[in-house]
Amino acid sequence: TSERDASATDPCRKGMETHRRLKVVLEGGMEEMVDREEGERDAVAERTEQVHDANVEIQTMRDRTEDAQARLMVALQQMAEHALDRAEACKQLQRRMERMVEPDAGGKSDPKRDALEIVKEMVVEAEGFAHQCVHDAKEEKKRKGRNETYSNVKNKAVVTQEVENDAQDDETDVAYHSSLDMEDQQMHPEESERNEDMVERCKYIPLRLTLRERKMLRLLEAALSVSEYTDKVDILSYRSRMGRIHAQIKEICAILSGLVVASDYKAGQNLIANKEFYENETFFQDVFEVGRRHKIMNPEKMRSDYGKLVYLLQDSTALELQELLQFKCVRPLNTVYTLLEEKGGLALLEDPLVEAATAEVKPEGKSRSQVQKAIKVKETAREKLAKAYGKGAMTPEDVRYCLYSIGDNNTYLFFNRDPVDKMIDFLTKYFDPQQTKEPKYSLSIAGGKEGARLTHNHARQYTYVLQSLTLWREISHDMFKLWCLAEGDLLRENNSYRLTDTGQGLNRVQNAPAVSRAIHQILHRSQQKLGSWVGSSVIHLGDHNVPNALMFIDKYTQVPRILNPVVLVLEQIPLVAKQEGLKEYLQANFGGVDGAIKEILTDFFRHAFDGSGADNFFDAGSCIDGRLTSAWNWCSKIEKKRYYPVFKLAGFVGFDGEFSK
After folding, report:
1. DSSP string of 137-193, one letter each residue
2. If you ran DSSP here, which 8-state letter would residue 509 be given?
3. Which pLDDT value is given to residue 53?
4. Report field, pTM of the whole predicted structure over 0.85
5. Fewer Cβ close by (within 10 Å): the C or N end of the chain?
C-alpha cells in the first residue's frame, strides 16, 4: 500500500517542482522585463531632459541675440540723435562767431576770423558725421527688417502667427476704439481738455462698482491672496506647462465657488449644485471683470494680486487651455459708453451740462461757503441731467451712475495728473529757461559728477526736465485709455509671450502693438507742443527693460507716487515756517522759505533727470523710460539729502504705499 501511495504522489511532486521552476523562470523574466522597461524609461527621460536643456539653451541664445540687436539699434539711434544735436550746436556757434567777426579789413590777420574758419570746418565734419550716423541707423533698421522677413519665410508658423496678430490688432483697434488721428491731437492740453470729445473719452472710463460687485471683488481678492499662481506657473520645469496652468485656474475657480458658498449658502448651492465649471462661465467672467475694472479706477489697490489676475487671464486665452476649461475667462470691460449705448442714452454725453455735473471740486484757495456752493452747483446739474435723460430704458439712476463714474475719472486726474502740472508750475516759477543769476540754483549737470550720466547746461537741462514732465502729464491724462489698450494687448488671443530671464528674474516678454501706437502718438503730441526735443525718443516696450504692457502701465503709475510727496512737502514748507523755531532753522540753513524750496527743486530737477539708475544708456539715460528710472534713483537716495529733515518736518512718510491693500 505504501509503495502504491508513493508511486501515486510522485507525479504530483514532479508537477509541483516543475511549476515552481517555471514560476522562478517567469518571475526572473518579469524582473528582467521590468528592469529593461525602467532602463528604457530612464533613457527616454534623459534624452527628454537633454532636448529640453538644448531648447532652453537655444532660446537663451536667441534671446541674447535679439537683445544685442535691440541694444545696437537703440545705440545707433541715440548716436544719430546726439550727432544731430552736436551738429546743430556747431551751427549755432558758427552763427554767433559770424556776428562777432568784423568785415575783411585789407587782408589783415584776424584771430577771430581764423577761429571762424576752424569752426566752419567743425560744422562740415559734424554734419558729415551726423549724416553718416543717420544712414547707419537706417541701414541697420532695414537689415533687421530683412532678417525678420527671412526668418518668417523659413518658419510658416511664424508667418501664420503674425497674420493672426495683425488681424487681432485690427480687431483690438475696433474693440477699444483706438483709431486716433495724430494731427487732430496737435493742440495745447488746455484746448484739448475744453474741446475733448466726451463720447471718445467715455469709451475708456470703467463703471463704478455696485454693492453686489464689491462683494464679488472681496471674493476675488480672497482667492488671489491665497493663490500661488505665478510661483507655480512662471518657472522652468519639466512638467507640462499647460497642465500646470489648467490646474491652477481650476483651483482658483474652486476657491471662488467655495467662498460663494461660505458667504451665501443658498446662492452657492445654486452655483455649484450638479454643475461643472464651464456651466458657471458667466459668474467667473463677471468676477474677473470686476477685479480688472476696480484696478483701473484705483491703481494703488491690488498691487500684488492684480499681476496674478492678469497673468492668469493671459494664460486662459490660449486655445489649448480653452479646450481644457471649456469656457472663456475674459470678457470686455463695462464702461460708461457701453452702458449708455445699451440703454440708448448716448445723447447724454453731448450735453454741455455734463462737465459741470462731473467736475472735481477743488478746495484750494476757497472758503467753506464757496466749496459748498460749488458742490450745490454740481448736484443741481446732476439732477437736471437725470430728469432730462432718465426716460425709457435709461432710468434716472442709470444717468447718475454714469455721471458718478465720469466724476471718478476726474478725481483720478486730480490726484494723478495735477501733481505733474504743479511741478511744471514750480519749474517755470523758480527757474529761468535760459540762464540763472545764482550759480547754486543752476540746473546744469556734468556726466560723472554726483552720479549724473548726462551733460547739460542750464538751458538744456531746463528743456529736458520740462519735456519729461510734459510727457508724464500727457500719459497720466490718457492713463485710462492706455490701461484699456494694455489689457487688450495682454489678453488678446494668439498674442503669445516668451518666458525669459530679463536680468530681473523670469518675465513674460510680449508684444504690445496697441499700447505702442498710443504712446508714440502721445510722444509726438508732446514734441509738437514743445517745438524741440532733448535726448533720445526711444520707447522700450516688449524687451528686457519693459517686457510687456503690464510692466509699462505699472511703470507710469509710479509718476504720481514720486511727484505727489514732493509737491505736498513744497506746499507745506510755508506752513512749517509759521512756527518760530522752525522758521529760524529754515533761515539759518537755507536762507528762508524760498531758499529751502529752491534748493529742493534744484536738486530734484538736476538729479531726478540726470540719466542715472543703471550702468549703460540702454537701461537708463535720456530715453523715454530712462527718465523715470532716474527719478526712482533720486527717490532711493532721499534720506542722504541735506534737506531731508525739512521733508520729515513737512510730514513726509515715503514714496510708496502698501502692496496688500
Report:
1. HHHHHHHHHHHHHHHHHH-HHHHHHHHHHHHHHHHHHHHHT----TGGG-S-HHHHH
2. E
3. 67
4. no
5. N
